[in-house]
Amino acid sequence: MELRHLRYFVAVYECRSFRRAAERVHVTQSTLSHQMAQLESELGERLFDRVGKGLRVTEAGDLFIVFARRALQEVDAGVQALSENASRLQGELCVGTTHTFNLRFIPGCVASICAQHPAVRVTVTELTAESVCRQLIDGAIDMGLSYRPGDMSGLEFEPLYDEQMVLVVAPSHKFARRKRLRLAELHRQPLVLMPKEFETRQMLDRCFSACGAVPSVVAQMSTIAPMLGLVQKSHIGAIVSENALDSSAGLVRIPLESPTPVRTPGILWRAGGTRSAPMRSFAAIARREAANRRHGTS
User: Fold this and answer.
1) Could you report the per-residue pLDDT of 219-246, keeping only the tens digit for each?
2) CA atoms of 96 and 123, how far apart (whole Å)
3) CATH number 2.40.50.140 is the correct assignment for the domain at 163-262
4) Per residue in 135-148, pLDDT tens?
5) DSSP bridge partners of 144
6) Which residue, among 268, 262, 267, has the nearest Cα to 290 in the 3D structure?
7) What's residue 90's pLDDT?
8) Which CATH superfamily is domain 91-161+264-294 in?
9) What are the structural domain ranges in the chain?
10) CA–CA separation, 26 vs 90, rounded Å?
């Protein structure tokens, strides 16, 4: 079945005449009649009864017209959306994100949308994960890239990939030469973590509880940069996203296991909100970037 079969069927249904329908769709009457015969054969149902020189719609025809029109409307809407996206995409887009994503993920997405759609103006606001959710609900930003929030009220979340948390230490730290580390081995070890109101901290506390470990949290900091700065100048460790560490920082990252702390980054939308063309385009770019990360090509 092809689109032309549906368009021809709708024309015949509305005109109740092969001759008038053929004139509407600009084909010969014999071509139209042949196409309708093909459609009826594929469906296994007669759509029209030929009565003398006229037509009578069958029960099957009355049923199928609803779906044929809907299918054509969806296709036409898709073609229109693609046309608008390709030739006239413009406007402003405000994206809220956290520091971790702003380091590597966001720059690639912004570079892509600027290259594909020069008329789109993008503003990226770096926030805490909690502020991303709050500002999204309040309408201060259009969309967010962050971790899955614990409270989804007023929000919709589209997961992109899973991200492991790792232990980060200075090269002189006693764990620096370890290839992997069980989370239980951090029992009573000095760590700098995010404050307890952060979702990441709550997830880590659950992981520690699961393995019976109680680390010595000697400092709490709300952003990654000062945490890493502290790690550089001390024998204190930090647990951060595997993507939060710049290779030039001179620090050592150690994978954790039993259990492995994992967070899920994704796109945050305002529940029931309108998604503009720039928002949809940026989301598509973010999905491609995430797919590249999963396959190790980014």
Assistant:
1) 999 888 899 999 999 999 999 988 777 6
2) 8
3) no
4) 999 999 999 999 88
5) 96, 268
6) 267
7) 82
8) Periplasmic binding protein-like II (3.40.190.10)
9) 3-87, 91-161+264-294, 163-262
10) 36
Say what the pLDDT of residue 102 is.
83
**Quick check: pTM over 0.70?**
no
Q: Which residues contact 83 (CB under 8 A, 6 or more apart)?
A: none
Task: Kindly indicate whether the domain formed by 3-87 is annotated with CATH number 1.10.10.10.
Answer: yes
The token duo for 218 is: 């000697």
Mean pLDDT of 8-26: 87
| HEC readout, 26-53 | CCCHHHHHHHHHHHHHHHCCCCEEEECC
DSSP string, 127-139: --HHHHHHHHHHT
Which pLDDT belongs to residue 248? Answer: 54
Q: Cα separation of 252 and 262, whole Å? A: 19
Q: Is the dihedral of CA 211, 217, 223, 228 positive or negative?
A: negative
Kindly report the three-state secondary structure assignment for every residue of 209-254.
Answer: HHHCCCCEEEEECCCHHHHHHHHHCCCCEEEEECCCCCHHHCCEEE
Q: So what's the pLDDT on residue 141?
A: 96
Between strands 155-159 and 265-270, the pairing is antiparallel
Most confident region among 12-16, 96-100, 164-168, 224-228 by mean pLDDT: 164-168
